[in-house]
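Fill-in record for PASTA domain-containing protein.
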Amino acid sequence: MARIRIRLGEKTKTLSVGALLIYLGIGVLFLCIFWQFSYLMVHKTLDDEDLVAHGHDKFTRSAVREAARGDIVDRHGNVLASDMEAYRLALITDADYPNHVTDPKKTAEAVAEIIDMSSEDIQERIEEGIENERFQVELGKEGRDLSYNQKNALEDGSIPGIVLTPETKRFYPNGDFASHLVGYAEQEEGTDELHGQLGLERAYDDVLEGQDGTIDYTQDLWGYIVPNSDTVKPPEDGAEMKLTIDSNIQLYLEDSLDIMEEHFEPEELFAVVADAETGEILASGQRPSFNPRTREGFGSSWLNMLYQYSFEPGSTFKVFGLAAAIDAGVYDPNALYESGSYDVNGYTINDWEKEGWGEITYNEGMQYSSNALMMLLQDKVGEEAMLDYYRQFGFGETTGSEFPNEQTGTLSWESELQRKTTSFGQGSTVTPIQMIQGMTAILNGGKMKKPYVIESITDPGTGEVLHQGKETVVRQVISEEAADKTHEELNTMVGGSMERNPQYLLDDYEVAGKSGTAQVIDPENGGYMDGPYEFLTSFIGYAPEDDPEVIVYYGVKLASKNKSDTWDIGVMPGFNPLMERTLKYLTVGESGSAQGAEVIEVGDHTGENLTEIPFASDAAIQTVVIGDGEEVVDHYPKNDTLLPYESFFVKTEGEAAMPDLAGLSKREVILFGDFIGVEVTVEGEGYVKSQSIAPGTILSNEEAIEVTLSSNDPED
């Protein structure tokens, strides 16, 4: 091999060419390595990849700390919507996994005893998973939102192959309870996040949902957390929303809607209770409705009828034409006119009694709800002036409520015929919230109050009030004198000299208001439906009549059962018990003074003597006792609150004896059955009239109770 001589000073070294090349190669290699390390140290990238970020990602971990969705509570702090922990069930079908389903039939039968799904369907899911070599199968909605008790039952059953994963669900403790107002929230597909889908839950989703937090930390090669490497961003829980809704009044309203639904089986129902002085909405409900807890009835109606339902109101609208005529100085209650019909450019419009009542006074015409009188008054006021009055009362525009998509209604004013029919509530449309708002002007010296349903929104972390609802005067619509005179005239509409609408009279309170019977648009053929009793029947009333505390607006559309009653008695079966129970609850006396109901705090009284529980003997609380002893073994509610006229269920020592359930509502009867662990079947709507097991009968575990309800308020 060729050699090369290299002279180093006086010495000469001989190297082979191969060795020289090796030395040169090693030198070049080290030079390249040095250059590469230098480049990496300076630029910190390789093939356009950020090496620092790559290392950070490899050793840094991040976990989400979920924010709690804000509660929705009533005016007393009672929870209407809240987060709770639930569980999702899965069944492992992979035989290679230690804990897997070994016997599909036995597993299906065991699971079916605990969740609401047939064993056949469960077994089919399991076998399908095994056949398709899946690791696990889930059971759809029946296997989700399982309670803590269901979780325990599944785990205690030692069922092979089950896996229970905790998740957050939205809980609505009262079921079908102001459902369209409160709305509902649920986990969206593909995520574990709760989002509002309807009602306030949707309208204020960004406020209620809060902001999730995070915790970031660094771990070493062995998976240990590097000390002092964690960075925590705490979650910001959603704000708490307090409503003006009163749960007790809402309960009365829901019970009354059940009564009306049973009696009429209508296409639609609505009811709203408002504070006459402030405009606060105390209760609101409708049918069809849904139970946000079980989803029963879900999808039957998406409209929040209080704000989004516009309809022709009929004669209840005459209240505002009357007020305008009085304010304009053209209404004399003793003036005479000829009733029966009114000519509009050659077209005759009749009163509901076509022959009329002869020559009568204006006041008598109002009591008879004469269409001819309203058209006459509109001509006297002047059409443009009357249109301005209607607009001043808030019709044709939203109330500026807390809800998006609030409807404006319409004031049909293009033709002479439209203008005239509007005077008696046909042709133009309104919403229930507009009617409530307009009525507040008449009952508050002409000052119209803006209705509102949100009392406050509060940041739970800081206590900062993000929104404060308050009494607001929209404007002075009519003079104080005109409002007082309108109020006096309305006080004659129930039980006045013509003895009209006597069905709305109450024994203990003087009720005033105006009824309405409106024709309904035929959606298929156009025009109005012309079958017998195909109406929207309503009543807007207030009490006490001289110093109103409460306004109740009630409507029923297109009854399919007991149709003639919509004409004969109107909405009385629902309106009367709702109004009376509300007034009694608010302790409104004949003087019209409202004291307001006090919330009773209920702790845990287990082990105490029943006679030592002060509120148990309160006349405003219905205490239902199961047992013949004195010592309290259990009770409901516990560590919660009671409102006046609610029921307090107590188990005492000794044999469990059947109590007298007379007067309990349907909801209370169901609560009673849950409390004592006995199946209760209910027939009818309203309040308990009879029960299959006589009071005093000793109860056994096997017995079921059948109760019959009556639509008559037992307190009447």
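KEY FINDING: The chain has three domains: 64-242, 249-590, 600-710.
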